Amino acid sequence: MNKFISLSRKDREDDEIDIYINKMDSLKEDLEDPYIDEITPETRFDFTIGDVTVPSFGKAQLQKMSIYEFDSEEEYATFVNWIEAKKPSITDCSIETFNDDLEDFDRLDEDGLYIEYTRVLLDNLNVTKSMDLMIPTHSSFEFSQDFHLDAVRLRSCFGRNNLFNFHCKEIEVSDSEISSENVNQYLRAWAAGCYNELEKLEVLFYGNENKFDWKPLLQGLNRKRTIYEHNIIDPEVTDETTEVKIETEHPGEFDYYYYKWAKIHRKVDSEGNFYMGMIVN
After folding, report:
1. Cα distance between residue 207 and residue 160, in whole Å
2. Residue 270 pLDDT more than 50?
3. Residue 219 and which of 19, 76, 106, 269 are 20 to 30 A apart at CA?
4. 238: in domain
5. Quick check: is 12 in a domain?
6. How many domains does the structure of the chain reveal?
7. For residue 108, is it within any domain?
8. Pairwise CA distance, residues 194 & 173, whole Å
């Protein structure tokens, strides 16, 4: 089930938010990713992680910081303590604390300190533009800092209420403990006048279709239109068409449109067209 839903605020229909709910069996490795990047020459640290020792840099601003898969709790603690002590200003930040093997999470949290380190990390990160976080926690995990960013991607087992800590233009939630009810609460807050930065929210879920239920997500919200996708084409092929139907203001009535897919991309184009991870011509 893949849906594009445009919501409007009550009495302010010009103030809209686009929601993308995508059911995907697996991630496509060739999707362009606007958040993750390689460590650049400007990205310098004053701590050792794994077998890589990098020089200290004082209080200089980091353009990009990408950290992946800590091998031990000691490594993770070293990283968190460095963040807490230095509080470097980071433009784009990507952190993966472990790989996809859940046994790694159990190993890292053997004495329960991993969760506390994670709380300290998120309360001390100083990020100015975008974040991509794959930091496993548990469903009741909470931290206090609010992030005001252009974009954030929350992956893996993030806590259910953590969405409320992000005041961002673009939010992507994938394979997370965050439920449709949590997203509904966030959107209700938006409809009431909070989270004014929000322009796009994308929810990705994999495998089990019952893991994320889109109906509670929309409960009590004003829908301007909904697009249902019928025929998914090969995303590598351009100039092909796929039929979608758009729900009108009258229940049970639909208008049919044909769109052309362009190349795979994760950004909205200049005219605001976006659907299923591809720009629409």
Report:
1. 19
2. no
3. 269
4. no
5. yes
6. 1
7. yes
8. 19
Q: Using one digit for the tens of pLDDT, what is the confidence trace for 199-246?
A: 888 877 654 444 566 667 677 777 665 654 433 344 443 344 444 444
CA 8-12-15 angle, to 5 degrees, is: 55
Tens digit of each residue's pLDDT (9 = 90 or more) over 63-89: 777 777 676 777 778 888 888 887 878
Q: How many residues does the chain have?
A: 281
Residue 187 CB neighbours (<10 A): 22
CA dihedral 90, 142, 36, 233 (to 10 degrees): -150
- How confident is the model over 185-196, as pLDDT tens digits? 888 888 888 888
* Whether 156 contacts 177, CB under 8 Å: no
Tell me the C-alpha distance between 123 and 155, whole Å: 18
Flag whether 262 is in a domain: no
